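Protein: HTH-type transcriptional repressor ComR
Species: Paraburkholderia metrosideri
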Amino acid sequence: MPVTGRPREFDRDAALHAAMLVFWRKGFLATSMNDLCEAMGIRSPSLYAAFGSKESLYIEAVQRYNAGARSLIWDHIKDGPTVRESVRKVLLAAADVLSGDAGNPSGCMVNLATVGYEGLGAVAQAVEEARLGGLKALRSGIKRAVAGGELPRSTNVDRLSRFYLGVIQGMAIQGHDGATRADLAGIAEAAMLAWPATS
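Structure follows.
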């Protein structure tokens, strides 16, 4: 269907990125519409026309954040010569991102989001789905390690996957609270000592 009427006077992708950074720094509940409009460089009618609501904008921002996290962190699960090295790369990539050294806010937008969001079902679901993406990536790698003989068949895949996800979630909190990239990389290297022996 052709679009009629006056074209929007802003870059929707740039506006979404700006909104994502505000939500990342402040969280959904603490972010006001004024915060968003100011960061995005638009007025509220344009925000509603482009995104529908604050909730819809947040869900899009979470999806954008998650796509970036997948590229920067979780895709490393396929990178190493071994799955162990791949998991190490995931943890070290997380240290880069969560420390804020890349110029973005520190911590993790989805792991630092308020748990529950009572009364905001779609928002809570978007956050939960984003968190599960990391767990699925770790499970896929660890299953591959078991199938290829790198890990014993007795390995509890879910438990080990949740352990390394928990490490990253803890790194997110510490990064938000000021831990440096070196601090977080140290956590990553310590966590790799828990990788099960093959025999």
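Remarks: The CA atoms of residues 68 and 140 lie 19 Å apart.
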